[in-house]
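Researcher: Please predict.
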Amino acid sequence: MAHGVFGTAINCMDGRTQLSVNEYLRKNYKLDYIDTVTEPGPVKILSENNTGVDSIKQRVNISVGAHGSKLIAIVAHYDCAGNPVPKEVQLKQMEAALETVRSWNFDVQCIGLWVDEQWRAIPVE
C-alpha cells in the first residue's frame, strides 16, 4: 500500500483541466496524491459503455487496490474536443457515468466535477 492519502480522477486528456481538478481535490478532500486516468471525453465513454470502459475500470482498480484511493472523481469540461457537445449534454452523461462507476462497487465516494470556461473545478450535484 502506498503512503499518503490518494484519490482518483477520471479526467479528460486535455491538459487545461488537470491542475484545477488536482488542486480542488487536494483542498476539498484532504488528498496528498491524485491518480489520474485520462481519456478524451471520459463522460461520453462511461455513459455509453463504449470501448475503453474496461481499460478505465482496470486503471481505477489499480488506484483503489494498490494506492487505497478513497475517492473517484469523474470530470467533464468546457470546450472538450473529445466530446464536443453542450454542457447540459455532458452533465447528463456525467449522471450516467457516475452510475457506471458506482456499479463497479468500489468502497469509495464517487463525485462529478465540471471544469468551466475559467478552468475552475466545480462540483456537480
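Model: The mean pLDDT is 96.
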